[in-house]
Amino acid sequence: MDSTVTSTETTSKLTLHRDPVKTVILASMMGTAIEFFDFYAYGTASAAYFPKVFFPQMTPLLATMLSLLTFGVAFVARPVGSFLFGHYGDRLGRKKTLVVSLLVMGVATVAIGFIPSYQVVGVWGALLLCICRFVQGIGLGGEWSGAVLVATENAPADKRALYGAFPEVGAPIGFFLCNGLFFVLERVLTPTQMMTVGWRIPFWASAVLVVIGLYVRRRLQETPLFKLAQEQDNTTKSPLREVFKSNWREILKGTFMMGATYALFCTLTTWALAFATTALGFSSAEFLLLLMIAIVEFAVMIMLTSVLADKVGRKKVLLTASVALVGFSLVFPYFLAGKHNLMGAVLFLGVGFLIMGTLYGPVGAVLPELFPTNVRYSGAGIAYNLAAVVGAAMAPTVTTWLIANYGLHAAGYYMLVLSVLAVVSWLLTKETKDVDYTK
């Protein structure tokens, strides 16, 4: 096809070859639901069980910090996954790459459930845990960007943020399913049973979700925009070289836009669970129930703010939320003062997930909109996964260290720095709502 194809011809072609909306929703949402199911399973286990299962020879504080560091291993691996899957996603297509990334992620997650404890194999258990977590991170590195491209590259121009919200809603769905399973297990099994076999069940259960996800994704067509790029000979054999050469500024902006969001997310979930069950006197079941209630708010805000972003623009919504996160970073430690402070915990989670949903919803459209079609998988994935390293890999451990050395009031300092960087990044970024997504 001639590269001077008109806008009308392009629109007509895209309309004819889009996947049905239901298929797009299921394929994009299912993968991220599995991703975050696995994410929460590991986050919950590393906060509540791994210190005793894999690091019983350490002091409680050191065991918790080492356990949370293994949580960060996947985030270090995720850029590797984004390089690998981004390369093939921009060369060969979104569909094939998404299927492989889901399979890699699923196999590693199930394997975690079979790792022997310290009492059985000593330090080898922790080493195997890190290896599986690293492989899981590689699969995760290709998942999000592929899922949002399946959604947004099938979307009408005026509904990209709404379609981009489909995979984002997979996050609260995965959270709810995983924490719901942990909640039921902790009510049914004894603490000893949870420590030996109960924590393993969610990892094994993820195999069911992976099979369903693979079935749905194999029914997808290639996205219309990627097929158009192929027909116009607008793909590249070296997408990584191209994206770092031509779009390195967008990678940096996207990384810092998303970094604070990831720090908030891990603070609200993994760190908060560890802190609430050790310093605040909550049981795991109690705090998991509070999280499950708050996650409903998270899902609602994702959809509402994505619709708003299609109407008024991404920058207004996300810049406002980033400024709000600056304030939240300073005040949230005071919500958590005192033993078993239920009102403070509810306020912490309520305000936190209000901001989290606002930040996380529209970003499914924003990061892909920063990059052209021929490097969109690579660019969006690299920015998203570098943000995971910056914002999530160290957030639980650094926050625990800050409190141990400077007191509870210092808990938000790490997130504060990242939220200020997010504000600066947004101030330096133009509105992306009306970019030509076919280029």
Proportion of strand residues: under 5%
Query: Class by helix and strand content?
Result: mainly alpha
Give the overall shape: globular
In whole angstroms, how far apart are the ends? 14 Å
What is the H-and-E element order? HHHHHHHHHHHHHHHHHHHH
Per DSSP, the total helix count is 20
- From the alpha carbons, calculate the radius of gyration and give it in angstroms: 21 Å
Biggest sheet, open or closed, and with what strands and sense? none
Number of strands: 0
Fold topology:
Elements: H1 7-17, H2 21-48, H3 50-54, H4 60-91, H5 94-112, H6 118-121, H7 124-152, H8 160-188, H9 191-196, H10 201-218, H11 224-231, H12 239-246, H13 248-278, H14 284-312, H15 314-335, H16 342-360, H17 363-369, H18 376-393, H19 395-406, H20 413-427
Helix pairs in contact: 2-4, 2-5, 2-7, 2-8, 2-10, 2-13, 4-5, 4-7, 4-18, 4-19, 5-7, 5-10, 7-8, 7-18, 8-14, 8-17, 13-14, 13-16, 13-18, 13-19, 13-20, 14-15, 14-16, 15-16, 15-20
